Amino acid sequence: MFDLLGYLLKQGKATQPGLFPDLDEAARGMPKLAVDKPCQGKSCNACADICPTNAISVFEGQGKGAQVDLDLGACIGCGLCIDTCPTELFTRDTSTRSAVSCRSMLTNSNSTPARTASAMPSKSKIFRRSLAVRVVSTGCSACDLEIGAASNPIFDMERFGISIVASPRMADALLVTGPVGKGMHEALRRTYGAMAEPRIVIACGSCAISGGVHQNGYAGANGLGAILPVDVFIPGCPPHPWSIIHGLFVAMGRE
Amino acid sequence: MIPTIKEVAPEQLDSTLRSWLTEEGHRLGLITSIDGRQIITLLLNKRDASSSILWSRLDNNEYQSLTPGTPQAHWFERAIHDLFGLIPIGHPRLKPAVINEAFSNGLASLAQDIDSTVTSRPSGPDFSYLHVEGEGIFELPVGPVHAGIIEPGHFRLSCLGESVVNLEIRLGFLHRGIEKRLTQIPWTKARFIAEAAASDTAAANALAHAIAIESLLEVEIPARAQYFRTLALEIERLAMHIADIGGMAVDLGNLAVAAAASRLRGQSLRLADLLAGSRFLRGFVAPGGVTRDPENFLPQLKAINAELSRELTPLLDYFLSNPSVYERLRGVGSLSTSLAKEFGVIGVAGRASNIDYDARTIFPHATFPKNAPKPVLDSQGDALSRILVRAGEIASSLNLIDGALDNLPSGSTKCTMPSELPANKTGLGIVEAFRGELIHLVVTDESGKINRYAIKDPSVNNWTGLAIAARNNVIADFPVCNKSFSLAYSGHDL
Questions:
Q1: Is-contact B96 B78, C-beta < 8 A?
Q2: B278 chain-A contacts, CB cut-off 8 A
């Protein structure tokens, strides 16, 4: 046992200093639209054609060129648009402050400046210092593993008063991962119903927001919004643990 | 790999399959259908790394069940019933496998009649549970939503006092219609759905998908890309084996080891990030090679791998030499070699029950079988054995990563790919994922469009292993028994 203690002491402090550091150069991250780059419009359409989840729409526009919308709620961060665009309209977004409290804020457009996350209205006030979270998975386990990682010594979200709890009865927030196929609708409704008010619903990952790669299949896996009112959206496939913590901060009214 | 196809009459299928499996080195890959008008049975020969498909045309939606003669067929036949509405006559317990009550509308989602419309299942699925009767027997339902952060599934434990008499596993909560979606979208975009079948296995799923597509197109993959694929596969194995051992430490209350393991798992995800730009190796392996050349990050990869090697070895030692860990796990959840063989149990659970099968030593994928490590085997078949096998594989993965980084050939990382798939062809990808043998099977129609995409996750074979292993154990041992198998729900439910 003393050997193990010695080993642990030698490891030193693993926790990352600072909050929400940017992703480093190795990570692909999510794409974002540059406001100062031109777009060749519908005649090119390369980004929309190559996108595996139809997250990109190109519109004919006036003035500087066509308007391009990028829906980060459907984006899985494959990076193909960044590689494909001939005019470098798409760039890497290295920010981990990616969660938002409104679905429409996930749509990034080249005609408007980038959005910033905003705090939620009233009900978030009482969760400022402590948030008990119930996680329900309906997907492929990558998001689940990243939520698990957010509690590890590197990210250590418990230091912010966030705890993962084993029952919806104890929970303030319902954190849902996966595309919410109809096989999980009943279980989710019951979990939500067992929570005391006020309660917050958080969609974690592009699947939970829009169905991601699974959207429009026969299993009805089109995201959480179809069955529950969602308060916070955390884009990514899967979101980085810092982005998940950011989403919980948005829910607590701290961001 | 392209399997050879043999026509077999449905009435002869049972005897053909049984006699095939009596020979040493023969294995049942999977049983499924294309559109509900045939049964296809994939046979694997481990001795010469060959594969063949028994193709049995059906005149109606009934056929003689294979399960009474070949017990490991039971799960496949239940899935065939769910997805195609076919009825295996004489199946001992035809309950749903990949769907739950929400899908009980009678739609057989993958079956098509001649007009390509979906047909309905002739009989509604039977969702009843097996009831154990007798004085003092009680049922304990667990799930689908579990206490921890894991995927959903339902366990129905019938207990007599502390002892588990029967465990019934009900899955299908995560059914997302992946196999159907893979036939609906252009094949060039299919890899993103294929790897989302189970994202903890993203690299292996992407690789099996790539190999299946490449075998249809008969393209040659550059050597450098093959080494990167080996790196991706082994980094995934390393990360998930550390996660599983750390998870076991949590369940045993050994929080010091759990905390250290989760930190080291973070380091292994750093390897993935450097290699692929994604902590889960998403979007890295693609048909034709790999999508990026992480040339600038190779020295960092090498350094972090060496650091992991240094730190993991003593940690695993502390954990596995701890008498309370030994006492807690030895003899828990035993699975005998004969039962493991009969039910086709594979991967970590199979090797812990002395089944000498690691697809890396047989079927070509990435740089394997050339530099495949010797399979790590154990003969006890209990929870401790499964942890020991994982620990052994962590060591071999660290070595493989180091070796692949040292011997990385130069050159390109992808080859040019044709834009169309050939017509009427069947392609197969077999990969040793961290849980075990993973199979992707692609069948194209006369226009070169994918008309059937079948995925066989290693968990499909191993869930039965868990149901057997949990029997006659005390209820308090079920969590560690379940953890020691560490099976996928999403890869199973698709």
A1: yes
A2: 27-28, 77
Interacting residues of A41 by C-beta distance below 8 A, sequence separation 6+:
A58, A60, A61, A65, A66
With beta carbons under 8 A apart, name residues in chain B contacting A219: 103, 175-177
Distance of alpha carbon A142 from alpha carbon A149, whole angstroms = 10
Contact status of A146 with chain B (Cβ, < 8 Å): yes
Interface contact flag, B175 A135, Cβ < 8 Å: no
Q: Which residues contact B116 (CB under 8 A, 6 or more apart)?
A: none
Alpha helices (H) in chain A, listed in sequence order: 2-11, 46-50, 80-84, 142-150, 185-193, 206-210, 241-252
Q: Chain B closest CA to A79's CA: distance in Å?
A: 8
For B11-56, what is each residue's pLDDT tens digit?
999 999 999 999 889 999 999 999 888 999 999 999 999 999 999 9
pLDDT digits (tens, 9 = 90+) for B90-123: 999 888 888 888 887 656 777 765 444 455 555 6
Cα–Cα distance measured from residue B386 to residue B349, given in angstroms and rounded to the nearest whole number: 6
Cβ neighbors of B366 (< 8 A, separation 6 or more) are B207, B226, B227, B229, B230, B232, B233
Residues B337, B489, B25: CA angle, nearest 5 degrees: 30
Q: How far apart are CA A212 and CA A219, in angstroms?
A: 13
Residue B124: band (very low, low, confident or very high) from pLDDT cuts 50, 70, 90: low
Residue of A49, A133, A141 for testing the chain B interface, max B β-carbons within 10 Å? A141
Q: Which of A215, A140, A221 is nearest to A185 (CA)?
A: A221
What does pTM read for this prediction? 0.93
Residues B178-185 have a mean pLDDT of 90
Q: How far is B174 from chain A (nearest CA, A)?
A: 6
The shares of helix, strand and coil residues in chain B, as percent rounded to the nearest 5, are: 45, 20, 40
A chain contacts of residue B280, beta-carbon cutoff 8 Å: 142, 145, 238
B426-482: per-residue pLDDT in tens?
Answer: 999 999 999 999 999 999 999 989 999 999 999 999 999 999 999 999 999 999 999
Closest CA to B392 of B436, B433, B351: B351
Closest-CA distance of chain B to residue A38, Å: 26
* Contact call for A213 and B193, based on CB within 8 A: yes
Q: Residue type for B359, please?
A: A
Backbone angles phi, psi at B193, to 5 degrees: -75, -40
Query: Which residues does A140 contact at the CB level (< 8 Å), separation at least 6?
Result: A178, A207, B196, B197, B198, B199, B200, B490
How many Cβ atoms from other residues are within 10 Å of residue A28's Cβ?
Answer: 21
Please give the angle made by the CA atoms of B14, B432 and B282, to the nearest 5 degrees: 125
Q: What count of other Cβ atoms lies within 10 Å of the Cβ of residue A146?
A: 27
Query: With left for phi above 0 and alpha for psi between -120 and 50, is residue A160 left, alpha or beta?
Result: alpha
Chain A residue with minimal CA distance to B177? A219
The answer to whether the peptide bond before residue A198 is cis (omega within 30 degrees of 0) is yes
Q: Which of B286, B110, B291 is nearest to B205 (CA)?
A: B286
Buried b (16+ CB within 10 A) or exposed e, B358-377: bbbbbbbbbbbbeebbebbb
- Give the nearest chain B residue to A177 (CA atoms): B151
The reply to whether residue A27 touches residue B273, judged by beta carbons under 8 angstroms, is: yes
Residue B448, token pair as written in the block: 């070169």
Query: Do the Cβ atoms of B351 and B387 come closer than 8 Å?
Result: no
Q: Which among A136, A141, A167 has the least Cβ separation from residue B490?
A: A141
Rounded to a whole number of angstroms, the distance from the CA of B382 to the nearest CA of chain A is 25
Query: A4 in contact with B at a CB cutoff of 8 Å?
Result: yes
**Which of B176, B243, B280 is nearest residue A179 as measured by Cβ atoms?**
B176
Do the Cβ atoms of B490 and A140 come within 8 Å?
A: yes
Residues 237-266 of B with CB under 8 A from A: 243, 256-257, 259-260, 262-263, 265-266
